[in-house]
């Protein structure tokens, strides 16, 4: 055991009972040895076993009872981050403008072609020295600081290259300015290169400014999600209504939401009804009608009605908080494609320094006269052209924009590896109920095979089903309720798993269930066979009611197909993906439903525990398989699939087991998720190709490999422009993903 | 070959060898961590390589003292964690690794690296 102690502020406390509630909740955490909550200071001190207890555990113990623990200073504020970045941007902007203006003046007085138009004093090397010095050591201070700090660690980065390159040009120019005779003696025209050192710094700072600005946009999605959060809630406590900060809302609080207001936290409607715009969380543009008993999501917008709801999830348990956490985690993950870039980037800068030294030696020994000048300029060009940033930014920026874009449209991708696999999926298995269908079966047909009336059939069946927990039972009971049929008392109730139910009503023994139940009880169904076949061929599930040993009626139940199903499946098929339906329904019903949707391959009569095995069989055919389900009873299959897609739930179980969670229930989102993955991977590949290609082609050019053949050399100023633009172009290419329409 | 060319050649070979030795052959010290560790972010990570126990919670406190924008983010991608490091503030990452092995972490631009060794 490792005993530790921690004191942290708690938000939301207002009375002595809060102290007891928090203390009790904290003491229930395994590993917390003691705790003391102080109302006056609003702080808690916890003694705990650090091997068992994490900050998250403490925070959730506190938030579970409706308060907020502010553990460590690390709770980052998006505002603080944005503020700091804005400050950096302003600083960069100032230094960039300063360097480019002064550098431009020096360039005017020294660049061949321009020099003739410049006033005489600008050609003076001493004036150029005076102008170049603040650029070198004030605007370029960051390069020096970063270089010195990293040299202490025996590491090198892009700043090291810029520092060595520009310092070389600056020192050479200084030597030429102050001792021109030495250079004349060795046959070199004493021409300074202050324009080179200053313009390089100016252009690289400009590149950094654009890059920083663009990078800020890559994290827009998280900022937007955080910004969705409501600030206050109108809570009804002890009959009084009051607006309180959202942090003080407790689980169980009744909250009033008026037209046009944002819903503060997750909960269930207890009074009233309304139409709610959930597009910011689910990506679904059509407002959803909600009535008493329906779940509402925090951060969504109430449109027309007014209602009261009970808070069920607050703080980091709300759907929005979970979405933010998931997106943050995804953005911190690594795509396997990045591994090569990782290896190269750890050797890159030292290798470039070695190549630059070799360039100097080769040009000095074998280059044309004045060889020192050529050697120096080509060495500087080699150092400046190399761009490790582009390689470092290629993958993460695309992942940030891609996963952010997904989140805005209700597509939550768990990590970058899933993006890579999702693009390779060639088979998708859909769980039928709740995914392809609405998951709310209704009674469609009542067929009497005796002299019973429909109402009597429904009364008997519903009376029995009232005691059952089977998913189809609810539809029959509901139908009886809708028709105001009073239910009878049931005796000797018995559920026969996989078959149906048995019980006594009005002193008669009733059996209600599937064909297997009838076969077991030796009840003849031959007379009704045609009706059964007809109903099953229509995609309906048929249940049979027998009184004693005689079949008395058939009740057909059908689940409605979602509006988006046909189009969603068609889109996937157009993409060349095989669509498979898996269901517990009997074959005939399953085939009929699949036929209505346009699915050719059906796996019917599969029990929930058999879904994983069926999925593995398809994987055994060499297919890359995605499984789409509601995530509740198909979690093992979701976990076993190459990509598990949970749809329209947002439950903790689903998000844990699924690789991709679709917050909305629109089936088109499946194709959108796959398309987004493909598109993001394409962006990553283009970025990596560009970043690698740029360095592989331009470093040798900067070293002068084209000179022997074409007398072509790259100027250091052009090299700095290319280098500045290369990382900007990679980030910009990633940002293009934002424009992609899902 | 003139003397200056010979000198430049010899210096270049020494320079290349020095660069290789200085940057690529550095002795990578590993710090054993039992509960928590402060990693100072200044021109890299100190300590750079840490050994942490499997199955136990280890707190890694990053304290950025270097204003270089490159170091403003630390990414522990094997642990799905990316943190913004405000200047001169402590940001804690809690890890409870379930697998042994070597896991790299790096700055936002993948130029400064460190290693978390889980034993």
UniProtKB/TrEMBL annotation, chain A:
GO cellular component, as recorded: plasma membrane
Pfam families reported for this sequence: E1-E2_ATPase, HMA, Hydrolase
Gene Ontology molecular function: any one: ATP hydrolysis activity
Keyword field: ATP-binding, Cell membrane, Copper, Copper transport, Ion transport, Magnesium, Membrane, Metal-binding, Nucleotide-binding, Phosphoprotein, Translocase, Transmembrane, Transmembrane helix, Transport
EC number: 7.2.2.8
Membrane topology: Multi-pass membrane protein
Transmembrane region(s): 96-114, 126-144, 156-173, 193-210, 347-366, 372-395, 688-710, 716-737
Protease among keywords: no
Subcellular location field: Cell membrane
Stored InterPro entries: ATPase_P-typ_cyto_dom_N (IPR023299), ATPase_P-typ_P_site (IPR018303), ATPase_P-typ_TM_dom_sf (IPR023298), ATPase_P-typ_transduc_dom_A_sf (IPR008250), ATPase_P-type_domA (IPR059000), HAD-like_sf (IPR036412), HAD_sf (IPR023214), Heavy-metal-associated_CS (IPR017969)
Major subcellular location class: membrane
Span of domain HMA: 4-70
Catalytic activity: Cu(+)(in) + ATP + H2O = Cu(+)(out) + ADP + phosphate + H(+)
Gene Ontology biological process terms, A to Z: copper ion homeostasis
NCBIfam families: ATPase-IB1_Cu (TIGR01511), ATPase-IB_hvy (TIGR01525), ATPase_P-type (TIGR01494)
Family recorded in the similarity comment: Belongs to the cation transport ATPase (P-type) (TC 3.A.3) family. Type IB subfamily.
Protein name in UniProt: P-type Cu(+) transporter
TrEMBL record, chain B:
Database matches in InterPro entries: Cupredoxin, EfeO_Cupredoxin
UniProt-recorded name of the protein: EfeO-type cupredoxin-like domain-containing protein
Pfam families assigned: Cupredoxin_1
Transmembrane segment boundaries: 6-25
Keywords, comma-separated and alphabetical: Membrane, Transmembrane, Transmembrane helix
EfeO-type cupredoxin-like domain boundaries: 16-118
